[in-house]
Amino acid sequence: MQNPNSPPSHASPTLNPYKTLPFQPHFKPQKLQHMRNQVENNFSEFFEKWILQHEANLQQLLSVSKNPSNEQEQRVLISKVTTHYKEYYSAKWAAAKEDVLGFFSPPWLTPLENAYLWMTGWKPSLAFRLLDSVRYTGVPGSSLADMSGEQLKKIEDLRVKIKVEEEKVEREMERQQVAMADRRMVELAQLTSRVRDGVGEIDGLVEVALKGLLVGLERVMKMGDCVRLKTLKWVFEVLTPLQCVDFMAAASMLQIQLRKWGKNRDSQQGS
């Protein structure tokens, strides 16, 4: 898996929309659409298998949670579930090289799931709200209700730290969104609307410009994923093995149920 702390930092290429390029575009729109469909189909297939294993992991988490004395079993399961998450991000980053746009509106998720996405995934601060909810609602048998004062202080410090990390990602996303209206994009849009001859050359300019934008979106996606991975790592460092098991069980259950609610809603609207 790529280093989550070092997302690529490619600068957008300098573009003069009035320069004539001596080549035709590498990809035709039909080819780009075919490539995108192939990437989305492949990742959809991966995700369905991944979510099935996620459900199986949840059952194991719930089972191990009932045996609080076996710390070795807890650690083995934590490692297994963590590896499962890393496999998801590894596959995601590989697929995003071919089609990052698919992860900003993933067709393998329901509209309900998509509505709660933050930078192509779950919002990191959700982890702290989940911890609060499990503690305050008094989930029967949950070890999270027994967190020490020292643990709670560390979690609060992490909450603030992660909030700062989230804001960095949001500022980068804002920068990418505003870049859509910069001078070269406006000039290119005007040029494209006027040109009838030399369409191939204009397509080449558009392709170069869009590649720069997509590189920026890929950077935002990876920045968001890095914060998600750091959140899990840092929270796990504060919790005991049993508390990690209970936390992952609560997080997995929420994700799985949200997906089921989304599918049920879609089927009801379609009937």
Brief description of this entry?
The chain has about 270 residues and is mostly helical. The chain is about 70% helix and about 0% strand.
Which class best fits the helix and strand makeup? Answer: mainly alpha
SSE ordering: HHHHHHHH
Helix percentage: over 70%
Helical segment tally? Answer: 8
Characterize the biggest β-sheet: none
Shape: elongated
How many strands? Answer: 0
The amount of beta strand, in percent, is: under 5%
Radius of gyration over C-alpha positions, nearest whole angstrom: 22 Å
Residue runs with pLDDT of under 50 for 5 or more positions: 4-32
What is the residue-averaged pLDDT? 85
Number of domains: 1
Distance between the termini: 42 Å
Summary keywords:
271 residues; mainly alpha; 8 helices; elongated; sequence-specific DNA binding
Structure description:
With 271 residues, the protein is an all-alpha fold. The protein has eight helices and no strands. The chain has one domain. Helix 1 packs across helix 8 and helix 6 packs antiparallel against helix 7.
Itemize the secondary structure elements and their pairings.
Blueprint: H1 29-65, H2 71-96, H3 111-115, H4 126-137, H5 149-179, H6 183-194, H7 199-238, H8 241-270
